[in-house]
Design brief:
mainly beta; ten-stranded antiparallel β-barrel; globular; Lipocalin
Length: 156
């Protein structure tokens, strides 16, 4: 497994129909899993406080990573605390976005599951990915929850 450590990344999350827009700059590790599959890994404590909805140092323990291929992207945030999630995007299909909520550490997690329709997915790369752009819609059964753009730039 090839490691290209401490890449600077810019991650933008934008809603096209809601007042949501956030851009973060962070350090990440880029791992090459095989020829066209990469993992981009960030420690949650390395993310800016604006990216943490609880804004508490004690809750900022966990992993945030993206699995990137030319055809699909999976984004996962795993935490020991209140929120974990996983998104799956592949162009032209309905993927799954799953959120696991745990309000009390000693009780079982509650899970919310949404669909997302990926209208556009592009991964630009040379040897390593340089940027990723995903345009998608979130759905809860028959109700659209908004249209979103996720854009990732990876500095070399």
């Amino acid at each position: 497994m090839l490691v290209n450590r401490y890449q600077t990344v810019y991650l933008s999350f934008i809603s096209t129909d809601l007042p949501v827009w956030d851009v973060i700059k962070a350090k990440a590790s880029l791992y090459q899993r095989d020829r066209d599959r990469f993992h981009l890994l960030l420690n949650q404590q390395d993310l800016p406080h604006s990216f943490d909805p609880h804004n508490e140092e004690s809750s900022r323990q966990g992993l945030f990573w993206l699995e990137i291929t030319p055809y699909r992207v999976m984004m996962t945030m795993q935490s020991n605390h209140k929120l974990s999630y996983r998104h799956y995007w592949e162009r032209g299909i309905y993927g799954v976005s799953r959120y696991c909520l745990n309000t009390k550490p000693d009780s079982p997690s509650k899970s919310l599951r949404f669909s997302n329709f990926t209208r556009y997915l592009k991964v630009e790369q040379d040897t390593f990915p340089k940027n990723v752009r995903i345009e998608y819609e979130m759905w809860s059964q028959q109700v659209q929850l908004g249209s979103y753009i996720l854009h990732l730039d990876i500095e070399n």
